Amino acid sequence: MIFDESYSGKVFIMSRATEEEADCVIYGMPMDWTVSFRPGSRFGPNRIREASIGLEEYSPYLDRHLEEVRYHDAGDMMLPFGNPQRSIDMIEGYIDELLEKGKFPLGLGGEHLVTWPVLKAMYRKYRDMAVIHIDAHADLREEYEGEPLSHSTPIRKTCELIGPENVYSFGIRSGMREEFQYAKDSGMFMAKYEVLGPLKKVLPHLAGRPVYVTIDIDVLDPAFAPGTGTAEAGGITSKELLAAIHELAQSEVNVIGSDLVEVAPVYDPTEKTPIAASKFVREMLLGFVK
């Protein structure tokens, strides 16, 4: 069983009743089995849902209302605790099912390794896809302490799968020297420290292409999002991340799926992190799901 069918908890605000009537499916990937610092991101998806109850359904940024988008919140996947390989296999299989049904996948993490199986499934359908990666960390390691399945490796795996020239990273301000050297030598695009300005320059070159967007909440400065497992000083503001989402939404790229990962609510008693994340998800729904 992939989902707990008896689950009767919170869903993202204004979720449609069934998957069949939806264009987009929201799903949680509550996994933090491979984190290198602080666990807790497995609790992120449900706190984002709970925080969404406080949102307005209307976006003044995009002049759209959530009633205009047909989406269904499937809940959290029942991933086997402590088993990363089985967990990512389950995620990959589920995304295959969603794509076969023509649904737009919008994932809530969970650690960033959960993006890797999603991208494998997406690439089987979209062979000319590009990836936009917004994050504090390069995630270009081949392994962490000898373990290739790590939340520090998904973008390196993605480069090896789809070609580094099709990977675009923004906001990066942390990583090993070797990771930055790999980015420089491989031909991938990496914008250090900033997001919005470099994104505006890149998007015209991606016009018409299928693009998957993955956002790690720790791209924000800890002042705006302390509730994450590997906080990194020197980040962007919530306002800038909203502007980046809107820039993507109003561009000519074809966003084919997205996720928001690494919300770890236990480290944020103020709840500003899940509150911000829920707003980002609202804007992703209104901007990305056509």
Automatic annotation (TrEMBL):
Record's keyword annotation contains Hydrolase: yes
InterPro entries: Agmatinase-rel, Ureohydrolase, Ureohydrolase_dom_sf, Ureohydrolase_Mn_BS
PROSITE patterns from the UniProt entry: ARGINASE_1, ARGINASE_2
Pathway as given in its UniProt record: Amine and polyamine biosynthesis; putrescine biosynthesis via agmatine pathway; putrescine from agmatine: step 1/1
Class of the enzyme per the UniProt entry, highest EC level: hydrolase
Keywords on record: Hydrolase, Manganese, Metal-binding, Polyamine biosynthesis, Putrescine biosynthesis, Spermidine biosynthesis
SUPFAM superfamilies membership: Arginase/deacetylase
UniProt cofactor note: Binds 2 manganese ions per subunit.
Enzyme nomenclature, EC number: 3.5.3.11
Cofactor(s) needed for function: Mn(2+)
One Gene Ontology term of the molecular function aspect: metal ion binding
Keyword match Translocase: no
Assigned protein family: Belongs to the arginase family. Agmatinase subfamily.
Function: Catalyzes the formation of putrescine from agmatine.
Protein name: Agmatinase
Organism: Halobacillus mangrovi
Upper classification of the organism: Bacteria, Bacillati, Bacillota, Bacilli, Bacillales
